[in-house]
Structures are given as C-alpha cells and as structure tokens.
C-alpha cells in the first residue's frame, strides 16, 4: 500500500519465559503504523503461528522441509471501519496464549527449528487490499524456577600414574544475557569484545614426585544433534528446565580421541542414535593456552572467556543443543601423559538488564 511508509510490530519484551505452573502467558506490544497519506481500514487482525520445522534433505544444497503446527491464535485489534491520519499511529495489543506450559521453547538449529511468528494484517477499505507485517516471538524455558543453582560445579579428581593428585572444579552453568535472538547460523558471529559468558575453573595439583603442571589447553564446542524419527512421531513438549545438569563425578573421564568431536556431516538424520554431533561449532578459535605455576599444592584459578555467540541449551525431543569444555592438562615431566577432561556445561539465559 502506497499510503504506508512503515508498519512494525513492537514487543514489550524481546523474549518471554514460559511459566511452569498454571499461569497464563501474555504477549504485549504495539503495532506501529506510519502513514504518508490518510488510510481507511476496515479491520486490523493479529495472528500468532507457532510451528516446528525439520529439514530432511541429505544434501547441503537442497531443502526438504517438514512443518508441524504447535499453536494458532487470532486477535482482532480493530474491528470497525476507521480512517487513520498521516503520521504515526500506535495500536496496542495483548494476546493470551492458551496452555503455554505445553509449548516448546524457541530454538534455531542448522537443520531444525521451533518458531513463533506474529503477523499483523491491515485491511484497506477501498480498493480492497491487505497489508501484512511479521515479527518473531521468542519463548524461553525459565530454568531458575526449577531449583538451578548457577554456582554449582562439577568436580573431577584422581591420581595420575602415582606422580600427581589433582582436583578440578568447573562451573556447571554458563549464564548469558538474553539478547532476544536465537543465535541463527546466518547471524554475524564476530566475537564480541566483552565475553558473552565465562566458565570458572578451580584446580589443585599435589605433586607426589615433583611432577608439576606446565599448562592447560582449553577448547570449547557447541553441538547440535537431530532425530527425525522423533520429529515424525510427535513434536512433544520439552523437558522442564531445558537441558539436564551434568552429574558430578569423583573420577576423571576416560580420554577420547579428538576426531570423535569433528564428524563434519552425517548424511541421514533418520538414525535414532548417532554418537557424533550432526553439527559442531568451535567456541574458542584458536584454543586457549593457560600457563600454570608448577608450585605444588597451591590452588589454581582461572576463567575461560567465550566471546562468540552461544545458543542456549535445548533438549526438545528432535533437536538437542549442548556445550562442552575440553581441558588438556600438560605436565612438566615429558613422560607423563597429558590429562584430558571433557566437561559438559549448560548454557542458560537470564533476562536482559535492559528489559
């Protein structure tokens, strides 16, 4: 429509948190209409469409999308014929979601997604025409209501070849500020000057035979795993609170061959259980190397800053997004095999301080 200079949906909050209890969830905002000349409309309608989507193409150059509806709601914002003058007009709206506890959280993966889209439709009186504008709504799971303690740590301790005792404590959770986006793969992933998240590490190394620690090499990854079979059977609700917290352990995990983390492409997504991630994103490029004093028994503390954009953990039944920090501890004695710790971390969001 030539009369419309711009028409935008402006939300009161860039993302909303799904309540765990019987509470309702209300999306509030305004339709901001800017006209170059007066416009006569018969109605303004707002539609919400939530859907899950899976790309089952086995080729990187093609798309074979399967879509399933999660929610459809409609709200009439204006239901009488009215003429709006040139300039700016604000049309407030409030739409209450039905049974929000059954909805999946928003997620954007390389091969699958859960999206919620608001569409505003303005119907012109004469000649008849419909103008549409859209806005994505982001729904999150509020993990803090499920008793998550962001100060929890996972502990690894043990003895290396009778020469050195170690105890390493790593943060279970990385809390990132909710910026109102999903970290789409097409987004600019230029590292931010200020770290988006930090992983805190505390370690104690006790030398039994003057076997000091030389340095710690740190890598971090974001993994995406897909399951088309579960997508086809049901879209299902996600587990409460997002990804389950990693369990603490008192023994070091066995070292794994690094190549298991770098399977570049799985040709078919229909396999139910595949040990390798379908998509791997390095979060530290290049890896960090942290020098460590070899003084025996003195605690060592450091932070792993992650400047790249991270997606929150997702645990819906057809798409999992998880994160891991891999620390390789090298010792002063060359004959001592480096100790590799593969530590799962959970990335969770907190509401932006600006909201």
From TrEMBL:
Q: Where is this region: Disordered?
A: 234-261
Q: What are the residue boundaries of the Arrestin-like N-terminal domain, all occurrences included?
A: 27-132
Name the Gene3D superfamilies on file. 2.60.40.640
What InterPro entries does this protein's entry cite? Arrestin-like_C, Arrestin-like_N
State which residue ranges cross the membrane.
none
Q: What is this protein called?
A: Arrestin-like N-terminal domain-containing protein
């Amino acid at each position: 429509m030539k009369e419309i200079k711009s028409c935008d949906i402006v939300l009161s909050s860039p993302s909303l948190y799904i309540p765990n209890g019987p509470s309702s969830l209300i999306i509030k905002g305004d339709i901001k209409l800017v006209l170059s000349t007066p416009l006569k409309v018969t109605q303004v309608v707002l539609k919400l469409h939530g859907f899950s989507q899976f790309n089952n193409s086995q080729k990187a150059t093609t798309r074979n999308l399967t879509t399933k509806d999660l929610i459809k709601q409609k709200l009439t914002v204006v239901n009488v014929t009215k003429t709006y003058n040139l300039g700016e007009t604000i049309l407030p709206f409030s739409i209450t979601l039905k049974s929000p506890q059954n909805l999946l959280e928003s997620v954007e993966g390389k091969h699958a997604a859960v999206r919620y889209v608001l569409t505003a439709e303005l119907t012109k009186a004469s000649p008849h025409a419909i103008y549409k504008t859209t806005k994505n709504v982001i729904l999150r799971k509020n993990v803090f209501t499920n008793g998550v303690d962001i100060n929890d740590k996972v502990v690894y301790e043990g003895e290396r070849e009778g020469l050195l005792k170690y105890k390493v404590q790593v943060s279970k959770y990385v809390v990132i500020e909710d910026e109102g986006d999903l970290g789409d793969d097409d987004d600019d992933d230029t590292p931010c000057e200020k770290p988006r998240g930090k992983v805190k590490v505390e370690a104690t190394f006790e030398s039994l035979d003057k076997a000091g620690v030389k340095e710690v090499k740190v890598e971090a990854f974001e993994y995406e795993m897909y399951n088309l079979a579960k997508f086809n059977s049901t879209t299902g609700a996600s587990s409460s609170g997002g990804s389950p917290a990693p369990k603490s352990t008192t023994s070091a995990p066995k070292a794994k061959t690094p190549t298991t983390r770098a399977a570049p492409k799985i040709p078919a997504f229909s396999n139910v259980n595949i040990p390798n991630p379908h998509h791997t994103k390095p979060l530290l490029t290049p890896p960090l190397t942290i020098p460590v004093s070899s003084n025996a028994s003195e605690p060592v503390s450091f932070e792993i800053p992650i400047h790249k954009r991270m997606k929150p953990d997702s645990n819906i039944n057809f798409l999992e997004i998880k994160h891991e920090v891999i620390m390789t501890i090298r010792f002063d004695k060359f004959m001592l095999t480096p100790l590799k710790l593969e530590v799962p971390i959970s990335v969770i969001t907190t509401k932006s301080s600006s909201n």
